[in-house]
Amino acid sequence: MEEPQQSTEPAAPAGDPAEDKPPLRVGMVGYAFMGAAHSQGWRTAGRVFDLPLRPVQAMICGRDEAAARAAAGRHGWAAVETDWRALIARDDIDLVDICTPGDSHAEIALAALAAGKHVLCEKPLANTVAEAETMTAAAEEAQARGRVAMVGFNYRRVPATALARRLVADGRIGTLRHVRVTYLQDWLVDPRFPLTWRLRRERAGSGSLGDLGAHIVDLAQYLAGERLAGVSALTETFVRERPLPGGAGSGLTATPAAGTGTVTVDDAALFTGRFTSGALASFEATRYATGRKNALHVELNGERGSLSFDLERLNELWFHDATEPGAVAGFRRILVTEPEHPYLEAWWPPGHGLGYEHTFVHQVRDLVHAIAEGRRPEPSFADGLQVQRVLAAVEESAEKNSVYTSVAD
User: Fold this and answer.
1) Distances (CA, A) of 403 to 57, 125, 239, 265, 400
2) What angle do CA 104, 387, 49 make, to 5 degrees?
3) pLDDT in tens, 60-113
4) Which residue among 8, 129, 310, 384 sits deepest, i.e. has the most Cβ atoms within 10 Å of its Cβ?
């Protein structure tokens, strides 16, 4: 005879106005970088925004019990599990948050949806188009049963990018002509950096393309309000052999004492595209831009104006209104900290900026409202599938473009 389940739900603080709201009991699978970021969102959203449901950090799951317990204590989770299947089977879990490598997204999400849970899944949605198609079909069926599924493209939740989307939708830059997006990092420049899971296709699906390219494809389409119709691409792997984890080193670098392994993903991806309207787009995603740590930049040019955003200055949006007289026209900085700006009605007085972690708080806010209102969240699994199709098209194009036509004299 099975022992009855013990509730994982902590009591709301005495006098907390949220205590009268129905709980949304969250079980999160994964506890590393993304697990910490998502924890910040679940811990904070209900304390900042007036949500229709009360998020409860019920359980965190990881294969390493000691590490999972340390993460639970650090980030405020009430209980720990080492088997994600056991987490999903619990009656006192309403939503499963997936923060694992891409090779497990499909299996966990499909099981959670089949068990009647809501799902939040980190990007990219899956490692293959086929997996993403299966997940999207399951999400559509779950939606009909009152369960929602969302993919975590958090850069949509920067107030400045949300404001940029509003300005595009309002026609402030007119007909879109050109979008250019770059996402530059440098954490793989050192050839002694070990062969982690992100450098193995069977775990990560792809390299900079899936890790960074997924973000900029989604962000470009979100801001433009339309989808890419086709792409032309190049990819490259600069260092093809790396030390296996466990060799001598600091963790950031390693010596070949434990041997080496083959890198099976791309280090950089360059591609151009065309939107359904005919507007052009250019993309660059690399983990080899020496000196760049997390440099995401997007610019949209239209017939009536332009918008420019830099993640390293994420409280600013630059806007050029081409309808103004040339003598006074030019890019002007919008400090996106006013209560009229997206998400900022609940935060600090004007001029007091937000940071990266707040995108995950806003993600929780939007997801909780979608659940309470019974509507499809954005971005949905269908949106994640469409991004996956773009990534697959980039890889296919890069393979076809691997042979160059000589331009030498």
Assistant:
1) 52, 31, 20, 19, 7
2) 80
3) 999 999 999 999 999 999 999 999 999 999 999 999 999 999 999 999 999 999
4) 384
